[in-house]
UniProtKB/TrEMBL annotation:
CDD domains: DPS. Residues 18-154 form the Ferritin/DPS domain. Belongs to the Dps family. This is Dps family protein. InterPro entries: DPS_DNA-bd, DPS_DNA-bd_CS, Ferritin-like, Ferritin-like_SF, Ferritin_DPS_dom. Gene3D superfamilies: 1.20.1260.10. It comes from the Bacteria. It comes from Flavobacterium jumunjinense.
Amino acid sequence: MEPKIGLTKEELSKSIKDLTVVLSNEMILYVKTRKFHWNVTGNSFMELHKLFENQYSTLEETIDDVAERISELGGKAIGTMKEFIKHSILEEDSNFINQNEMLEELLNDHEKIIIQLRKFIKNAEEIEDVGTADFLTSILMDHESKSWILRKYLS
Ligand SMILES: [Fe+2]
């Protein structure tokens, strides 16, 4: 059954398309942050081990919210790694890098997501999908907060 919420079919699919990219980015970043939680070494081991755990745990909640938002708009949430990689603007990390490189890599990914979210928020505003615009704004703010923490370790 299609949602009758004042948005046309085309408008709904526009938002679903952007939300699918957001879902894919969050998944790639989640997996990467979890990998860094497992493999971090060095003098900040325990601190970064815990920080990364905290970050991937909240990313996991975001992932669930994004997938459910897609469903709320009448879409289907993709769920294979292949599809996530295809739709994401982020690259997976298959190397074993040191703690500073991990921080830089994560910061870089969060910043890329933030920049793209600004575009998606504008797209949602243009079609008056205020729910999605507001939802994406809260995700953007969470990435800004995570970026701020990562940046503090690097400055
Ligand atoms: Fe763990």
